[in-house]
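Lab notebook page, bench 4
Experiment: in silico fold of construct C2
Operator: M.H.
Input chain length: 537 residues
Purpose: comparison with the prior construct
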Amino acid sequence: MLDTLDAAAVRRWCVGGLAALKRHQSEIDQLNVYPVPDGDTGTNLVLTLTSAQQALAMDLDTLPDSGSTAHGHASRLMAQGALLGARGNSGVILSQILRGFADAVAAVPVVRGRELAAALRSATTAAYTAVGRPVEGTLLTVVAAAAEAAERTDTDDLCRVARAAARAAAEALSRTPQQLPALARAGVVDAGGKGLCVLLDALVEVLTGESAAPVAPTPRTARPAATVPRETGSEEYAYEVQFLLDATAGAVDEMRRTLDALGDSLVVVGDGREPEGTWNVHVHVNDVGAAVEAGVAAGRPYRISVTRFADQPEPSPGPAADGRAAVVVATGIGIAELFAAEGATVVPGNPSTGELLDAVRSTNAARVVVLPNDANTEAVASAAAREAHRYGIKVSVVPTRSPVQALAALAVRDGARRFEDDVIAMAEAAGACRYAEVCHASREALTVAGPCQPGDVLALVEGEVHLIGADLTDICAAVVDRMLGGGGELVTLLAGVDAPAGLTDAVRAHVARRWPFVEVQAYPGGQPFYPLLVGVE
């Protein structure tokens, strides 16, 4: 049993945690609450920690940074590797947990029980800070429970604190279905929280030499899985306010609370310097003066920019064409070719933070827009955008949830506009494009459209199941009818890799009969899981 967490223990924890996640990878993937076969939380956590382990393995002989201990240096390497390899929401949040942990242990000479508790509290704070609107019943709840239990233990006994944290995390995981109705209906626990429990159990094993015996979480029951509505942005606020700020962390915390009450889309990212650092602040508000005053109260704001979303100024001379670029995430050869034809740099689906950052830097552009094309990749894209700031590259993420939205966004791109105006125009075009996905159910489920069985054809509009049936062509035609019932002039069809021959031709013919004044564009997309993707503008 270890009395302190040294650098060697940090390395063994990373290796052991990765091995444990690989053992549980399929189990965590299957905690997906959507009735389509694309659950990948376990896979994303494995890939994220693989990057952390590789960062440690490549720096075995690197001396600690000035002011950092050996265990702190190892922890920072682990966190940085996780950040660059982070995939999906859970991967990004895990990277922030490891960053908070590393920040806490970096300078302390010895990590015993109380220091471990402080590190878990720092990890919790970093995780919550990384999420704009924290939701309980998730990975956040589990890490918070671990930190609280570690602090209550109030001892320097390292192993005792680690056991208490792992046990509390497992108990919190078992309660997640009580906090999120979607989990309760599905009879599952939170996938990201399960992954964190696996990592904490691995830490206990490294410190004690014994396999942890966590409290068993609520088992999966016979109750059907349920769908969860995907997040959407708010249009309640008229102005985007951005500025750089020199301030202390304490002052920034107070400013963050003020800005959160004023608007949404709040992002505050610091450079990590103490006691006073530089922070990049972004928020959408209606009261611009109050937002700037909050910055003045916190420290010294500068490079203040205010954009009114409703403004559409006349095109003005912008930077050279090679001064800006677009990076798009694409799953499917056909979709990738469409984006490449629009002049975008294409990154394969489910990228890591590092892969997106490499793509951004490879454009050699000072201003880059990133189109992630799904909610999980949006978190990764935001992390890559923050990292790109270190290289002097301004990155804006347009939160596209489907390739058809990205096509709409790229169609309005105009190098003659100011970059910020161009990003707004692209976001508006993407938001005006409604999207749908047609797939086959992979499991029995209770959806808002009724129950489905494995093999049933599902049509999801904006992430929510709207139609269930047996015939693929009929459901594809029906979902287009439903979307055009709300208006539209252009329908875009992307055929998946498993789409039967003639599917898009049949849908095109149906639209010509029912909606003779609507234009239809059809392309071979090559995407997996979804025989057809639909966009309506």
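Observations: The first strand starts at residue 225 and ends at 226. The chain has a mean pLDDT of 83.
Next step: discuss at group meeting.
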